[in-house]
Amino acid sequence: QVQLVESGGGLVQPGGSLRLSCAASGHIDRFNAMGWYRQAPGKQRELVADSTSGGRTHYLDSVKGRFTISRDNAKNTVYLQMNSLKPEDTAVYYCNAANRPRGMDYWGKGTLVTVSS
């Protein structure tokens, strides 16, 4: 069983920055994709950004140019650097680690990001 623990959420003013971290209990190089999802109140969970084992990254259109995902296999940690935050970025952010062809799909419990003045 893999545990994912997110940290780094909090309250930030519009235009501010936060860096989310997701620490995994095991080696993350076995996952072919690690990503960040978010869910705002009353909305469905959506993919914000992911990073594949091949080094490719994908971003939600609304965060392109503002968010950056990175992974440190040596530390078994994935990061999400969020800059120029907007109130519409307010949500619970979840870390995901997956290798779905092998039946692996793990989620963290989430960390709340609130963007408000």
Could you write a compact summary of the structure shown?
With about 120 residues, the chain is mainly beta. About 0% of the residues lie in helices and about 50% in strands.
Overview features:
117 residues; mainly beta; four-stranded antiparallel sheet
Kindly describe this structure.
With 117 residues, this protein is an all-beta fold. Helix content is 0%, strand content 52%. The strands form two sheets. Strands 2, 4, 5, 6, 9, 10 and 11 form a seven-stranded mixed beta sheet that branches. A hairpin with a 4-residue loop joins strand 5 (46-52) and strand 6. The chain is globular. It starts with a strand and ends with a strand. The model has no long low-confidence stretch (mean pLDDT 95).
Helix proportion of residues, in percent? under 10%
Q: Poorly predicted ranges (pLDDT <50, ≥5 residues)?
A: none
Largest sheet: 7 strands, mixed
Spatial gap, N to C terminus: 40 Å
Determine Rg (CA atoms, Å).
13 Å
Q: Secondary-structure blueprint of this entry?
A:
Elements: E1 4-7, E2 10-12, E3 18-24, E4 33-39, E5 46-52, E6 57-59, E7 67-72, E8 77-82, E9 91-99, E10 104-107, E11 111-115
Parallel strand pairs: 2-11
Antiparallel strand pairs: 1-3, 3-8, 4-5, 4-9, 5-6, 7-8, 9-10, 9-11
